């Protein structure tokens, strides 16, 4: 794979140019809430794929867009309803439409609002825990992650923090034809969640996978252990990955873990087979 | 025809005619968020259009056959909503609905169905190029012929040709839609939601409707020609009747048709009746070994006899070919 790191300062993510106008935003740390995003310049339109979890990360993402292009995105995409991919929505101007599937919008309304309540309820306690971790020698996370978490809890307890729902809902493919590139947004049914959207650039053979793909997998993530591997319906997720691996794609940007190839897709399929389908 | 239009509009007591000056259209406020631009008879606009203010976004529906008409539409939308267009929705590929695309800012996304974009890239582009290449001297001849022509049908034909020839000359290029959907999508504004839905095999292959369920307003594009011959030659007549049945299942109280005055479900019924009757009439003529072009308005049910447009003859020829092939 031939991509280059872009000179952009952020404690949250590294920015990689995959090809002209297509950037992968890859988290610097490996916590569960650290996700990838995409900046896609189609020529006349700029598209953002996922808005991240940590408010500081989203602020940096917005800053990167402004530094790269000096303009606002035309569309934002929420790949699925999990908060780690969409809590940053409200940092973008309201006039930018947010695309998701109808099911994703419904699940954000049902689940993420509840999660926010829970975050707010436990914020004080969690901040205290993190502060203690900073003085501890055997903290489970690194110092940057701990600071990020503290910032997160401080931000979500701010009354100005809002969950912004997607407002452009699709249930089938949407194609955005820019002057330079064409983007295919392809929704899938139950898989990682009950509805996920990939962003596929056929000409560049690049696909942003959202939660459908993990770049790295650990046996300890298997369901009987930590449950970190998240599959709403493993057999259907397997089928989705099988159909995506067959597409003419060279670079897969995983929702967690970073820039990958077909090898990572196969690894995810093997993992599902081993821990979910063969038992 | 005109009287009928007035009667229909008057029956929509919730609709308000706005005091907007345009040589191309009359502007109606249909609901809190929707506005219908109904083309004046014989104007160069060529088709109806409209706009919807859903709070966060202003959505324009169709851009007409003429850049000046589209410009008036844009001005009207700014005057009544104080917003610049966020999106344009194109209902189908025919030039009388898309010529004004290029007057909108390049940052304004233009939406339509996958199939409509494909049709614009093929037959739309072909018609546009042919009309653009048309000899200017022949255009002048056509205009002159209007002064001497007495046959009503021929006059309608010439006027229609001139509308298209002048329409394509009102723009520098044919701008294609850039965001396409397979079946539909929903745009949520902070005030209202708008549903876009596409249909295969009706007036064209890929017609799009724009529907505001909360306000019971429907923009039907050319799926509805209100009280006039629908042009059935670029789609699927049987499929169209089927789609009309589906549309009549929606809850709406006013429709902006692609052509003709503001309408209701009744006009969809009449349109389906027209298509079914004309198919039957042509079929009977062919089976009897007679010439289908001999079909007269009087052969229709009474409520369809007063209709009048250039599409009548075209439709008979199209159906005759279609049924002969079948």
Order of helices and strands of chain A: EEEEEHEHEHHEEEEEHEEH
Terminal residue distance of chain A:
35 Å
What's the quaternary structure here? heterodimer
Number of strands of chain B: 13
Largest sheet of chain A: 8 strands, mixed
Description:
The complex is a heterodimer of chains A (279) and B (326). The longest helix of chain A is centred in the middle third of the chain and has 33 residues, at 102-134. The two termini of chain A are 35 Å apart. Chain A is an alpha/beta fold and 279 residues long. In chain A, a hairpin with a 4-residue loop joins strand 9 and strand 10. Chain A has 6 helices and 14 strands. Chain A has helices at residues 55-69, 83-86, 102-134, 143-157, 234-245, 262-277, and strands at residues 4-5, 13-19, 22-27, 37-41, 46-49, 75-77, 98-101, 168-170, 174-177, 182-188, 196-201, 206-214, 251-256, 258-260. In chain B, 47% of the residues are buried. Chain B has helices at residues 2-11, 67-81, 114-132, 136-148, 152-169, 237-248, 265-287, 311-325, and strands at 16-17, 25-29, 34-39, 49-53, 58-61, 87-89, 109-113, 179-181, 184-188, 193-199, 207-212, 217-225, 254-259. Chain B is built from 8 helices and 13 strands. The A-B interface holds A 44-45, 74, 94-95, 97, 102, 105, 165-178 and B 56-57, 86, 106-107, 109, 114, 117, 176-190. Strand 9 of chain A pairs antiparallel with strand 8 of chain B.
